[in-house]
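ok, trying the design again with the full structure, not the truncated one.
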C-alpha cells in the first residue's frame, strides 16, 4: 500500500517518472544496478541518520551511490547534534514507514528533515527507492527541491 502511495505521489510530482518493478532481493543499490543496467552515478541512496547526543532527532539524507555521506562533518547541520550515526533498520522503519532498500525521499513524513546532496540536482535523472524493496523510481531531480522540509546542501565526499 505504501509503494502505491509513493508511486502516485511521484507521478504527480513528475509525470515522466519511470516506475521500475524489481526483484526485492535485488533492491540494494549495487545489486540493482548490476541486474537492471542502471548506473551508480544516477542511483541514489536515501539514508536515515539519528543524533547520538542530546534529544532524539532523525533526518533522511539522499546521496549518489558513488559518493559517501560525510556524517561526521555535517552532523550538526543534519540532526542538530554534535555526533550522529546511521539509524538502525528498526529505527528507519519506525521513522519512515519504509524498509531499507526501499527508502525514498518521495512520501517521507513531512516533519522529517530531508537533505539532498548538491551534486544530485545537476543530474538529468535519478533513481531512488519506491517505498518498498520491489520498486525503484527514475525521475527528474528537480522534484526533490519541491519536497517538504528539504534542504539541498553539500553533505557528501
Amino acid at each position: 500500500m505504501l509503494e502505491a502511495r509513493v508511486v502516485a505521489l511521484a507521478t504527480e510530482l513528475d509525470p515522466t517518472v519511470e516506475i521500475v518493478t524489481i526483484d526485492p532481493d535485488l533492491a540494494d543499490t549495487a545489486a540493482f544496478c548490476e541486474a537492471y543496467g542502471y548506473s551508480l552515478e544516477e542511483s541514489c541512496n536515501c539514508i536515515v541518520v539519528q543524533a547520538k547526543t542530546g534529544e532524539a532527532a532523525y533526518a533522511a539524507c539522499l546521496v549518489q551511490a558513488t559518493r559517501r555521506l560525510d556524517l561526521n562533518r555535517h552532523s550538526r547541520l543534519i540532526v542538530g547534534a554534535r555526533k550522529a550515526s546511521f539509524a538502525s533498520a528498526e529505527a528507519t522503519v519506525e521513522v519512515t514507514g519504509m524498509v531499507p532498500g526501499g527508502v525514498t525521499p518521495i512520501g517521507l513524513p513531512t516533519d522529517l528533515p530531508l537533505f539532498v546532496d548538491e551534486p544530485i540536482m545537476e543530474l538529468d535523472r535519478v533513481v531512488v527507492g519506491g517505498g518498498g524493496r520491489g520498486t525503484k523510481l527514475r525521475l527528474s531531480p528537480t522534484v526533490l527541491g519541491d519536497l517538504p522540509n528539504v534542504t539541498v546542501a553539500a553533505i557528501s565526499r
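Keeping the full-length input from now on. The first strand starts at residue 18 and ends at 21.
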